[in-house]
Design the sequence.
């Protein structure tokens, strides 16, 4: 059944009746990045490499705000080389798919967002033009990826301006005809970001679903080793450790007013890596010189794709962290925390058991999409996520 169809799911709990609009089925949201095509050799990822059977939604990352504060492609070949259309055409083979255009990302920063939301005319122009672009190009909706309202140069008042933007987009989308345009947002998972960036209950009302970026809890900025996406807090948390985990973040969004059936939990297909000060002192919280070495294909210090990590996994010292349900590997002075099929199992079990909307993966091109590196077939991590996507349990709605 299509997402644009209106569903009513009535769940009676005592005297309370909950009405759910939208598709009550689980979601598997997969991000496609328009820069991975430029990686060398086997690392180059193109629309033809997408396996649409694994996902319910694809988010095309990223579009940007141009100098006129209007929606524009960030990659010059989005139109020229039909990159947009090549991704959209996947729906011909997988009609269950919805393809949304994702606006923003870390590199776009906050200034364009701030300028747009604080200028009434610019905001109206953006909304009107966005509807036209989505309809003309053929996207099923828009994904807002503002990182983040209220920080990185964005004033505190942008928290409320973001709510206004979401509300006005919702109204415009609802009046833009059939099929109904979808509206989602990729949101932060840290305590600071949740507190400063979002009126959770208000934006949750107007968004069709919310994708929680529940990763990057640890990185070189912490000046010590740590897994980027632990499921639970450590048994003996120190400082902010009790907040820096998937379970805390998901629970915080729910407690602040986000319905479970709208919250999609993010799972990374990359690992955060570090260079150790002492290879013999290599547990979680060990001192580091800085980021780990850049990968052969991805080329960014401190980040390794799953298929690049496989080489370390086979030749390194692997450690399972039972309380946090994560794994890391050490090879010489290189340390990386990452996901495996087993850790994905625990996260999907958490998502299903908790009644959440489903899983989001960042992203397609970090998994072993060719199946030539890890010996586990194509897309081993995303395949596991997709295979465990289950219908809702009414007990949790």
Sequence:
């Amino acid at each position: 059944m299509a997402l644009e169809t209106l569903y009513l799911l009535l769940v009676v709990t005592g005297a309370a009746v909950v009405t759910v609009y939208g598709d009550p089925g689980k979601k598997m949201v997969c991000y496609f990045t328009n820069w991975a095509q430029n990686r060398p050799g086997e690392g180059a990822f193109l629309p033809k490499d997408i396996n649409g059977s694994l996902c319910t939604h694809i988010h095309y990352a990223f579009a940007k705000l141009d100098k006129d504060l209007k929606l524009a492609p960030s990659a010059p070949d989005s139109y020229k080389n039909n990159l947009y259309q090549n991704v959209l055409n996947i729906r011909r083979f997988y009609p269950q798919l919805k393809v949304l255009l994702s606006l923003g990302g870390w590199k776009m920063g906050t200034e364009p967002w701030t300028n747009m939301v604080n200028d009434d005319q610019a905001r109206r122009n953006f909304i009107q033009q966005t509807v036209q672009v989505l309809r003309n190009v053929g996207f099923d909706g828009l994904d807002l990826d503002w990182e983040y309202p209220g920080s990185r140069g964005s004033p505190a008042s942008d928290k409320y301006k973001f709510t206004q933007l979401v509300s006005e987009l919702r109204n415009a989308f609802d009046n833009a005809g059939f099929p109904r345009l979808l509206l989602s947002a990729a949101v932060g998972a840290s305590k600071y970001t949740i507190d400063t960036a979002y009126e959770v209950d208000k934006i949750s009302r107007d968004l069709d679903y919310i994708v929680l970026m529940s990763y990057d809890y640890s990185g070189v900025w912490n000046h010590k080793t740590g897994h980027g996406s632990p499921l639970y807090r450590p048994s003996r948390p120190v400082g902010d450790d009790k907040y820096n985990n998937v379970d805390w973040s998901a629970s915080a969004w729910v407690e602040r007013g986000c319905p479970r059936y709208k919250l999609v939990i993010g799972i990374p297909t990359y690992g955060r890596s570090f260079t150790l000060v002492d290879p013999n002192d290599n547990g979680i919280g060990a001192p580091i010189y800085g980021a780990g070495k850049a990968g052969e294909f991805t080329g960014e210090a401190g980040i390794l794709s799953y298929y690049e990590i496989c080489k370390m996994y086979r030749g390194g010292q692997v450690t399972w962290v039972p309380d946090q349900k994560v794994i890391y590997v050490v090879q010489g002075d290189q340390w990386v925390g990452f996901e495996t099929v087993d850790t994905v199992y625990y996260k999907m079990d958490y998502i299903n058991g908790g009644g959440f909307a489903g899983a989001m993966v960042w992203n397609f091109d970090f998994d072993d999409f060719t199946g030539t590196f890890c010996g586990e077939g194509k897309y081993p991590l995303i395949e596991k996520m997709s295979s465990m996507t289950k219908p809702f349990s009414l007990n949790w709605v």
Q: What stands out?
A: The two ends are 20 Å apart (CA to CA). The first strand starts at residue 9 and ends at 13. Residues 1-23, 392-397 have pLDDT under 50 and may be disordered. The longest helix spans residues 120-137.
